[in-house]
Amino acid sequence: MKVSLQILAVLGVLATSAHAEELPIFDAHMHYSHDAVSFVPPNEVVKILRDAGVRKALVSSSDDRGTQLLKAAAPDIIVPALRPYERRGAIGTWMHDPSVIDYLAKKLAKFEYEAIGEFHAYGDDIQTKVIQTMIGMARERNLLLHHHGDREALDQILATWPEARVLWAHSGFAPPNEVANALRTYPRVWADLAYRSDMADSSGVDEDWRKAFEKFPDRFMVGTDTFAPERWHYVGRHAEFSRSWLAHLPDDIARKIAFENAEAMLAAK
Questions:
Q1: pTM for the complete prediction?
Q2: Can you tell me the distance from the alpha carbon of 110 to that of 222, in angstroms, rounded to the nearest whole number?
Q3: CA distance 85 to 95
Q4: In principle, which of 34, 109, 213, 223 could form an S-S bond with 192, CB 3.0–4.6 Å?
């Protein structure tokens, strides 16, 4: 029997959709800060993650209590990161506050972490004593640095610690050619795509981003960025969005961006 091209096309779409739905996610950019803990209890967060097919999640929180609550509730999912400030209001001032070092030292002595961050720093912020000391603490423990900032700050982090593993939050909100340049320059920098949608639309993957993904298939990963409590209710939809645009890439690249790259980044010590 001859099968029409239209039917074959439909079958192809269904097969792609089925594959996308099965794709597990390593969400490399999540927060569970003090205001979210009371808004979305830990058991509900864990259910949200499992229902969304999130295999692993790199989580930090402003005051760290939220991270520890989630780690206790779902140690198979939560990968803990330590933010260097206790309240989100300190995002622009923390690098000038010497008490941050005592806070980091206390937390690092008590709990196990895979990363320090997400921390916000731009340009010469990296040269402050607080950030230089923080980088030294990460270096002693070989921790990943999850950095939110510009290329100038990224350059200064790598000048301070050339062997650092750095996850560049939001890919620096830079265009794909500039992100690709950073990845070409620094083999131990990875880029998360949290809070970005410019890499794809309903018609498929943006061509400039596709070139970056194909050139550096091992260096990108997805993230939701639950910076506000209500964004926890967006996790499922974001996972669906991620799978939908990843389905337009070759299967091996889609798997890498969905979860394999984050796993490899953490293992690359």
A1: 0.91
A2: 29
A3: 9
A4: 223
